[in-house]
From TrEMBL:
It is an enzyme of class 2 (transferase). Residues 1-118 form the Response regulatory domain. It catalyses: ATP + protein L-histidine = ADP + protein N-phospho-L-histidine. The keyword Hydrolase does not apply. This is histidine kinase. The lineage of its organism: Bacteria, Pseudomonadati, Bacteroidota, Cytophagia, Cytophagales. GO terms for molecular function: phosphorelay sensor kinase activity. Residues 296-520 form the Histidine kinase domain. PROSITE patterns: HIS_KIN, RESPONSE_REGULATORY. The modification 4-aspartylphosphate is found at D50.
Length: 527
């Protein structure tokens, strides 16, 4: 905006028209005092000032303006119709004017001068803005440099206090700082410690440096004093500021003792693994030999037992008729031979569990129906009731799982209370995971099967004994058995990746609980 100062309106009006015609915004003041008030409140690009005015003349106004920090650089063009002498012109320039024109003024000349001074003023303002911006930028950079120097000093102090070898690398890839530990392995702050020939990483580090990625690897450094190589873990990470990498910080961490211990441990593990493989091969051979031995021994032991039983029966029928005492003694011998035969058979069955076998999908309801047919005579003799609820299809080794149910149902029939018909209930529930007390879920991956009876039961303090081979809780003269049946069941369930347990109250009955996976993860089952 251009301010026109003149005490005569007829002088102001033509100047305003000329300037506004050339797209200049204008303002006017009728006295020096009014001009000063407007200059205090507004910014002007050029001031056209009449020299002769009542009150404050143009020179006095110009001198007052030069004291305003806001307007002291505003160009002032003096106009005068009377004061044309050199001394007045000189006074005009000395009081702060940038030009002095005498009236009558040529409009074109005035317009050219206004345009020139307007443009100069605008450029001056732009330069001031640029200068101000540069000063701010310089101040910001100065503060940033001071902050950076402080942070750098702080980081160096931290690196110096570390137990590791620590260093920094600038964006050009040159080492700029190292801590005291560096000089145990390098004689120069600008040269990396000497490394084992097999551990050079220059090429890989260059790739990570170019990509701005963290770099980590093991390296063996040569100590200056001992010339020995020690293992270190090198880690170099980029430090970023405003999204740009400003430097890299690296550390060498001593891992020598750990590395030596690991290598020793790996060597021991390797030796132990080799020993275990040898032992496993030896054990497999021994197991095979034992299986062969069990078959041979069972045949050789059962053959003389059969003869003892056969000839004992012949003697009893042919020579001891009417001799009750001799018959009783011979019956004991026959019963002992029968128990010995059952024991040999059970031991043979127990040894067979070490043989590999395939899992198959098995309908447990069909399997139990077949088992109950085998127990028809006993069930009928004891007036037993067997209730079988729907059971799931599971992956099993059918011959072995049949033996488990056969033993458990047989025990429920055998250990019934005298004078009380046995009641046996077989039920199942799907559960989510392998556990005795897991809640039922509709889509469980395991099944929990309960075989409950109303027999003589047992004291639960003996629970840990009933699944151990040859452990019996009942008198052999009252209840027949070898004490192997539940041990066989336990081994079979273990082989099926399941669980077996029991709950019981004496003279009230027992519950045997099986937990089996519906689907076996392995194709083969091994002991």
């Amino acid at each position: 905006m251009i301010l026109i100062v003149d005490d005569r309106p007829e002088n102001i009006l033509p100047l305003k028209k000329i300037l506004e015609l050339h797209q200049f915004k204008t303002d006017s003041a009728g006295s020096g005092e009014e001009a000063l008030k407007k200059i205090l409140n507004n910014s002007y690009s050029v001031i056209i000032m009449d020299v002769q005015m009542p009150g404050m003349d143009g020179f006095e106004v110009a001198e007052a303006i030069s004291g305003f920090s806001k307007a002291k650089d505003t160009p002032i063009i003096f106009l005068s119709a009377v004061n044309k002498e050199k001394k007045f012109i000189t006074k005009g320039y000395s009081s702060g004017g940038i030009d002095y024109l005498t009236k009558p003024v040529d409009p074109d000349i005035l317009l050219l001068k206004v345009k020139t001074f307007y443009k100069l003023f605008q450029q001056q303002q732009e330069l001031k803005a640029i200068q101000h911006s540069l000063q701010n930028e310089i101040e910001i950079r100065k503060n940033a440099q001071e902050e950076l120097a402080f942070r750098m000093h702080e980081m160096q102090f931290i690196l110096e206090s570390l137990p590791q070898i620590a260093f920094t690398v600038n964006v050009e890839g040159d080492i700029e700082f190292v801590n005291e530990h560096w000089f145990q392995y390098s004689s120069s702050a600008h040269v990396f410690p000497e490394m084992h020939p097999d551990d050079f990483f220059t090429e890989r580090w260059s790739e990570h440096f170019a990509a701005g990625q963290e770099f980590t690897r093991e390296a063996r450094l040569k100590a200056l004093e001992s010339d020995e190589y020690k293992y270190f873990l090198l880690k170099i990470i980029p430090i970023t500021q405003n999204g740009a990498i400003v430097r890299w910080v690296g550390t060498f961490t001593d891992i020598h003792e750990q590395k030596m211990a690991n290598e020793l441990l790996e060597h021991k593990v390797e030796l132990r693994t080799r020993e275990l493989l040898d032992k496993n091969t030896e054990l497999e051979t021994t197991n095979h030999e034992l299986q062969q031995f069990a078959w041979v021994v069972s045949h050789d032991l059962k053959e003389p037992l059969r003869k003892i039983q056969t000839f004992s029966h012949l003697i009893k029928e042919k020579y001891l008729t009417g001799n009750e005492e001799a018959t009783a003694y011979l019956n004991r011998s026959i019963n002992s031979s029968a128990r010995m035969s059952r024991l040999i058979t059970d031991l043979l069955e127990y040894s067979r569990l070490s043989v590999k076998a395939n899992f198959q999908q098995t309908n447990l309801n069909s399997l139990i129906d077949e088992i109950l047919v085998d127990f028809d005579e006993v069930i009928e003799e004891k007036n037993a009731v067997v209730r079988v609820h729907p059971l799931p299809v599971t992956d099993t080794i059918p011959s072995q799982i049949r033996q488990v149910f056969q033993n458990l149902i047989g025990n429920a029939l055998k250990f019934s209370k005298p004078g009380t018909p046995p009641l046996i209930t077989i039920s199942s529930t799907l559960i989510g995971s392998k556990g005795m007390d897991e809640p039922a879920v509709a889509d469980g991956l395991f099944c929990r099967i309960v075989i409950a009876d109303n027999g003589i039961g047992f004291d639960e303090k003996f629970l840990d004994r009933i699944f151990v081979i040859f452990q019996r809780l009942n008198n052999i003269s009252t209840y027949e058995g070898t004490g192997i049946g539940l041990a066989i069941a336990k081994k079979i369930i273990d082989k099926h990746n399941g669980l077996i347990s029991a709950q019981s109250v004496e003279n009230e009955g027992s519950q045997f609980i099986l937990v089996l996976p519906l689907v076996q993860e392995n194709d083969l089952s091994e002991s």
